[in-house]
Amino acid sequence: MRVAFVSSAVPRRCGIATFTADLAAGVRMADPAVRIQFAAIDEPFAARTYGSTVAWRIAQEDPASYAAAARAISRSSVDVVNLQHEFGLYGVWQDGRYDDHLRVFLDACTKPTVTTFHTVPPIPEPWMLAAVRDAADRSAAIVVMSATGARLLREVYGVSKVPVVIEHGMPVIEPRGRRRLKRALAMEDRSVISTFGLVDPRKGLEHVVEAMPGILAKDPRALYLVIGQTHPELQKRQGESYRNSLIETARRVGVTGSLRFVNEYLTQGEIVEYLLASDVYVTPYLDPAQITSGTLAYALGAGKAIVSTPYLHASEVLADGRGILVPFRDPAAIAAAVGGILKDPVRKRALEERAYAYGRATTWPAIGAQVLTLMRHVVASREAADAAAPVLTA
Q: Which end of the chain has fewer CB atoms within 10 angstroms, the N or the C?
């Protein structure tokens, strides 16, 4: 089978690009005979070099480019399109209205399309409703990464097509080597708390920094690692102002020596090493409607004791004792939860075991196999429909 993935693509520093690369690798693991190509979405004014698997390029915010790519894919030998949807990649605000470029793409594409929705806001704007409904209507199948997302599509968006729930994948990780990795990363004899991913104010990292005095009161060895570069779009607009504000907050509350930045864009292997070296993983995100978090999925896969705010994805996957939920913007609650874990090795171990047991079922090879099965079903359904269509003669 031949698959065209439509998405941002590595080396673009974008969570959707990383997700798509991992998913494509998972599909290949499920069946090495599958042939994969990419249609890469470039941000405006980008001049990026891609690998040989990128067969088409789309200029973000240019509707003609989406249509041209769709027509080119339609002329190709591709059997099915796998499209990763995030509103910002497929549309733009102009003169107070949303121009939906995904609709432009799907109208021009004759290949069956499987569309994955990465964002499903629970209280959508009218343009969001219209964009999601149009995409669902024009797609052969639609995918979300949580049962909550599927429920929202049915109950809030009024989508009649049944969504397929396929969870966010994660690397195959063996949760071992914490002491060795702490030594290698110069964090020996520290209790490591970490958050990774592109740094921006939506992550709520300042609330963990403000929680550090309370955490240190319970464990003076505590160290908070903020792992990742500033989000490229934020850096263009504001430079390192947010990171500098975190440094200033640490200075104000007296925890400068217990905050460390890893200001790099890391490989998957490097991220996994930092995760395995961590004692507690924290996602203090601020958006209650966040339906997917790749970093949270990775932390589950690494078998971490997790503390999180109750955004939609966290509330679902950390249920049944797989993690601890704390209120939004509440440093005292974060301090109590993290400090409690660090002081109680038995509880910490129980959280780790439950997280890892959940994560094992959603490794990238397993997720790739699920997606491949869905795409094969879509292709077979299209072929059956074409075979059953009446032949018109003069």
A: C
309: nearest Cα among 295, 294, 330? 330
Sequence-ordered list of residues with C-beta below 8 angstroms from that of 67, at least 6 positions apart, any chain = 104, 105, 107, 108
Continuous segment of H or E residues that includes residue 324: strand 324-325
Domain made up of 178-361: CATH architecture: 3-Layer(aba) Sandwich (3.40)
- Per the DSSP assignment, residues forming a β-bridge with 308 are 283, 325
Separation of alpha carbons 351 and 343, rounded Å:
13
Percentage of residues in the chain having pLDDT higher than 70: 99
Q: Which fold has domain 2-169+363-388?
A: Rossmann fold (3.40.50)
How far apart, in whole angstroms, are the C-alpha atoms of residue 228 and residue 270?
11
Q: What is the pLDDT of residues 127-152, one digit of tens each?
A: 999 999 999 999 999 999 999 999 99
CA angle 128, 133, 137 (to 5 degrees): 155
Instruction: Enumerate the H helices of the chain as residue ranges.
Output: 15-30, 63-75, 101-108, 126-138, 147-155, 178-184, 205-218, 232-238, 241-253, 268-277, 294-301, 312-317, 331-343, 345-359, 364-388
Element of type H or E holding 260: strand 259-262
Asked if 2-169+363-388 and 178-361 have one fold, the answer is yes
Q: Are 118 and 142 in contact (CB under 8 A)?
A: no
Does pLDDT of 393 surpass 70? no
**What per-residue string of b and e applies to 112-140 under the rule 16 or more CB within 10 Å gives b?**
bbbbbbbbbbeebeeebeebbbebbeebb
Tell me what pLDDT residue 394 has: 59
Q: What phi and psi, each to the nearest 5 degrees, are found at residue 46?
A: -80, 145
Which pLDDT score, from 0 to 100, does residue 188 have?
A: 93
Q: First CA to last CA across the chain, in angstroms?
A: 34
Asked if residue 72 lies in contact with residue 31, where contact means CB atoms within 8 angstroms, the answer is no
Express each pLDDT in 24-48 by its tens digit.
999 999 999 999 999 999 998 887 8
Residue-range domain boundaries for the chain: 2-169+363-388, 178-361
Q: Report how far apart, in Å, the C-alpha atoms of 89 and of each of 8, 117, 149, 260, 312 are.
A: 8, 12, 19, 32, 22
